[in-house]
Amino acid sequence: AEYMGDVGYRFAAIVIGLTSLQIQTTYGQLELEWPPLARTFFNIVSVLSFNIDLSSPECANVVRDAFMLKFVLTIALPAVVLVPFGIVIAAALALGAAGHTELLGVSLAGRALLRSFRRSYIQVASVLYLPVTSIAMSYFSCVQGRDGRFFMAAAPSRLCYTSEYWRLFYVALLFTFLYGLGMPAAVWAMLTRARAQLEHGGAAARLEFFCEYAFLCRRFTEQHYWFEVAVMLRKLAVVFAMVTFRSAQSKATVAVVLLVLCLVNLSMMKPYVAPHHNWIDLVGLGVCIAILWSATLATATGRQVFVLFSLALNVIVIVAGVVIDWIWLRRTAAAADRE
After folding, report:
1. I need a labelling partner for 109 at 20 to 30 A (CA). Which of 80, 86, 94, 272 fits?
2. Whether this model's pTM surpasses 0.85
3. Are residues 113 and 107 in contact, defined by beta-carbon separation less than 8 angstroms?
4. Do residues 96 and 108 make contact, with C-beta atoms less than 8 angstroms apart?
5. pLDDT over threshold 90, residue 281
6. How distant, in Å, are the alpha carbons of 260, 293, 306 from that of 302?
7. Separation of alpha carbons 269 and 259, rounded Å
């Protein structure tokens, strides 16, 4: 996870691309006339973005309620990942007690170890944010059938507004607030509190802040150190559109509008330190909008052409972004060596 943080601010294009891919995983649940290649793409990126919501444990035919299995497994992910973290910390403390001072460049001192654990866990939690929030909020997405009854869009075999539905309603509501709003609020509080404590410490204190929280804010300008929260809220906006409205067309339209607002906000703020990262995020977000808008076109030919073109452009942007980052880092390192 420490390596993930290093990649996060050195190869910001990877993180930007992952954000775009995670948003696109939500498109697969829309009952729109996607080209077969597009559906295949959504299935692939659902794995790459750690989204297990689209997996199919029901294929094993060993559970009665497949949706609840997926619901519980996904909701539990932030807690489950604590287990390997706990094992690593226990092993590190044991090494520290045996007289070792560091391992792989990481200090084994208690306080430094806990700070490293906190950074690593937040990095993992930020990746899990969209799939966890999406599955929690999917419980509220109900669709009316031909017989007049309402069923869950994510699990057509489960009826809505029954006694069984209401028993779990408040559990889903709790996790929606805990993850959907709690995670961004926790990151915001952590960053603003730490920044306020160091605000009057001068340049040295500000440097210490950006070193401590580099995994969250080093790729952003000093003024926009909190922008990771905005990225999380961008994901939340798409999930909100997917679960709040009933028709696929309405979900897609609202999601496009919300993403356009995010695009306008991004173009005005330009939050990234490196100018090319602002362009990569702008183009990536624009592609997310284009893919969803293309699927709402009335003509089948236009829909096929625009969706496939947008998907191809999506892949090109991510690959090109990584290459540009690599060239930029090499030139920056060479300039530093000359100095």
Report:
1. 80
2. no
3. yes
4. yes
5. yes
6. 21, 11, 6
7. 15
